[in-house]
Specification:
122 residues; five-stranded antiparallel sheet; 35% helix
């Protein structure tokens, strides 16, 4: 399973460094570039893609996101599973962000535990 993680453009590099610093996530994080628009010199990063499997990677990812949010001014993280399920987490307060990330963890772990369905590519 892959999750797309989106943050405001000014935070993408910071989050990428933060996530790749986690041993469990090393080699699992890549950047997905935004489509080049007419008149642009180069495309920016649209999302960070994190490949997850069974094991503790989900907890490590969401714990790492919590830690990263604590270092930033109020911002929003969007997590998208590519199947139309999207969670937005705002860091207006650390407590609300932690609660939302806990719900995201439960949801993602349930997705990983579910048997694959026909045509989903897993």
């Amino acid at each position: 399973m892959q999750l797309a993680i989106r943050v405001p453009a000014e935070h993408v590099e910071s989050l990428a460094r933060w996530l790749t610093g986690e041993a469990e996530l090393h080699g699992r994080v890549s950047a997905r570039m935004a489509p080049l628009q007419l008149g642009e010199m180069g495309a920016g990063t649209e999302a960070l893609i994190v490949a997850l499997g069974s094991g503790g990677a989900v907890s490590v990812l969401l714990g790492s996101l919590t830690g990263w949010l604590r270092t930033k001014p109020p911002t929003t993280i969007e997590i998208d599973d590519g199947a139309g399920h999207r969670i937005s987490i705002s860091s207006d307060s650390v407590e609300s962000a932690q609660a939302a990330l806990e719900q995201a963890r439960i949801y993602v772990e349930a997705l990983l535990a579910a048997p694959p369905t026909a045509g989903d590519g897993t």
